[in-house]
Design the sequence.
């Protein structure tokens, strides 16, 4: 049975990915940082699908904690055969108002974490000549967003890393892709009013906003053998809000 490790998996897109992979028969490693109870409840839910799960606390912006996380996952579940780099934070405001510490926290959480996790996952994938890495980017990493310059820069970095790494490890049998969500109804949308959400729907050609499950299905597809000839690509799941 294959194993997937999903960072930031206790809620939102990460939790939806965990459910999708469990339903598909994967053992699931649930990474969390602060939401221990949500991770535990999710693990219990996933076991109903007949798979094994492990909850691993780690701040993925810290390379030492990432290394320890992978060690625990390998000891319990083996692998991972699939890595989903989902953990991330958002930040909005003028770039001129952002402090050094805020910039560094955002970059370490959204971009450095992807580097740390890929570095840990790749040696065993390369040895086995198989493996899939899927990075969660953002449509703002593709086109940029006003008042989200730092977030856009970090996600653009994720996209660049995805494309370059796909070229680097393709001959080793490892595929690397990104999923680029649009506006998705997660906890991050809590600060938006009903009018804000209605306006966002109007800006979206499909007339609706995304769900975590929409993103999870795209991630699961890229991990599957149906996508065996796809690497180095950015799959935009945004309802048509951004068309490049």
Sequence:
């Amino acid at each position: 049975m294959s194993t997937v490790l999903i960072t930031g998996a206790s809620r939102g897109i990460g939790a939806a990915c965990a459910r999708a992979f469990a339903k598909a028969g994967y053992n699931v490693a649930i990474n969390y940082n602060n939401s221990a109870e949500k991770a535990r409840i999710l693990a219990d839910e996933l076991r109903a699908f007949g798979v094994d799960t492990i909850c691993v606390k780690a701040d993925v912006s810290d390379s030492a904690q990432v290394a320890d996380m992978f060690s625990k996952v390998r000891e319990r579940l083996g692998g991972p055969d699939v890595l989903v780099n989902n953990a991330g934070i958002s930040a909005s405001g003028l770039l001129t108002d952002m402090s050094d510490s805020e910039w560094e926290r955002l970059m370490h959480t959204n971009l450095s974490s992807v580097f740390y996790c890929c570095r840990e996952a790749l040696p065993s994938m390369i040895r086995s000549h198989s493996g899939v890495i899927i990075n969660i980017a953002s449509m703002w990493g593709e086109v940029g967003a006003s008042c989200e310059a730092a977030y856009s820069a970090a996600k653009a970095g994720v996209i660049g890393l995805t494309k370059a790494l796909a070229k680097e490890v393709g001959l080793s049998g490892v595929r690397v892709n990104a999923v680029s969500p649009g506006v998705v109804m997660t906890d991050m949308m809590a600060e938006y009013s009903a009018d804000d959400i209605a306006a966002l729907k109007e800006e979206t050609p499909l007339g609706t906003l995304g769900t975590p499950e929409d993103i999870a299905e795209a991630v699961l597809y890229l991990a599957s053998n149906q996508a065996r000839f796809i690497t180095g690509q950015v799959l935009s799941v945004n309802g048509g809000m951004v068309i490049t």
User: Anything to note?
Assistant: Strands lie at 3-6, 27-32, 53-57, 82-85, 131-136, 174-181, 234-237. The first helix runs from residue 12 to 23. DSSP finds eight helices and seven strands in the chain.
